[in-house]
Amino acid sequence: MSAISSSRPILGSSVAPALVLDRVEAGYDGRPVLRDFSLTLNAGEVYALLGANGAGKSTVARVACGLLPVRRGRVAVGDGTQTRARIGLAPQDSALFPALSPRENVEVTARLCGVARDDRRAAVDRALDLTGCGPRADQPVRTLSGGWRRRANLSAALVGQPRLLIADEPTEGVDAGTRGVLSAALRETVKAGAGCLLISHDAVFVSDTADRIGVLARGRLLAEGPPNALLHQAFGAARLLSIRLTRPASEAAAQWFAQAGLTQADDRLEWRRLCDDALAVAQMLAAVVDGEGGEVAVRRPGLDDLVAHLSGASS
Ligand SMILES: Nc1ncnc2c1ncn2[C@@H]1O[C@H](COP(=O)(O)OP(=O)(O)OP(=O)(O)O)[C@@H](O)[C@H]1O
User: Is the ipTM of this structure higher than 0.90?
Assistant: First the structure.
């Protein structure tokens, strides 16, 4: 695995990691998904797990919160003395009661995770504030849009002031404004000393929110480190040139693209190349692309490209 250390300061070394998985083996029906899997999530950081469908991200989350037993290895949350109540889980499929309001849902969770009666009201208000849920806090959840449900779902996970927060696809189906609010809520939570394990396919959200990422494929960590450092390590100064067509390229155009080093995607409508001189190649091909009625674009590779690059290289 390639690993790059974080440039952000981690809380003092006396603070126990929020989560340690040490040489864990776990899976389903006798079939291991994780083998000899290790991961350390520091207090004060957002650590995002990225990977293609089926890579094992949710399995890591289930192991971390004790929903899936391990066959081998060690799992420790915080200093090991904390109970499950100090883990906040915002699951991908919202865990809210639809007939209750966000406030009532968050109150129920506060009770379940042992927030003292006298502290409950302040804890609920704080959790609703963190996700900006106030304006919809007293409407039944079943009447709320997906974005407000996501806010309420995260509030419920935050109300017990967890030492470990697990957020599974918190931005699925949300708009850019809500995404920003949820990112700020996670950052605020880790600033207060928690560790956050984030599982997300949302590359923009992860770039904005995570201190470190781990790229997972077939239950193995392929690389780990701060997002920009990993992008730099994988791609350097290269840019991604892509040509998008509305129908497969004519024979002549396909020859031009192939000669310029571009490869065709599975859908046969996109041609791509990663290179340092992407702008020059794009200019050279502009007339051919115009003739085909297509569009050419040059951009910096992102986290989706990193996952595809590392997963492809490891298969
Ligand atoms: N309850 C289950 N029973 C049997 N196999 C399972 C179960 N849950 C997951 N798996 C298998 O374990 C492997 C890892 O699945 P997991 O859900 O951890 O992947 P993931 O990275 O979270 O995927 P996605 O991005 O699609 O959510 C897959 O091969 C999946 O089919």
Answer: yes
Integer Cα distance of 3 and 203 in angstroms: 19
For residue 85, name the pLDDT band (cuts at 50, 70, 90): low
Asked whether 28 lines ligand 1 (CB < 6 A), one says: yes
- Beta strands 87-90 and 164-168, pairing class: parallel
104 bridge partner residues:
none
What is the location of CATH 3.40.50.300 in the chain? 2-225
307 alpha carbon – ligand 1 mean position (Å) = 17
Q: Which CATH superfamily is domain 2-225 in?
A: P-loop containing nucleotide triphosphate hydrolases (3.40.50.300)
Does residue 58's CB lie within 6 angstroms of at least one atom of ligand 1? yes
Tell me how far apart the alpha carbons of residues 101 and 155 are, in angstroms, rounded to a whole number. Answer: 12
134 lines ligand 1 (CB under 6 A): no
| Mutation test residue for ligand 1: of 21, 24, 25, 28, the one with most atoms within 8 Å of CB | 28
What whole-number percentage of the chain has pLDDT above 90?
83
Query: For residue 13, what pLDDT is reported?
Result: 52
Which phi and psi (to 5°) does residue 281 adopt? -65, -40
Q: CATH 3.30.70.260: which residues of the chain?
A: 236-314
User: How many angstroms separate the alpha carbon of residue 160 from the centre of ligand 1?
Assistant: 28
Q: Topology of 236-314 in CATH?
A: Alpha-Beta Plaits (3.30.70)
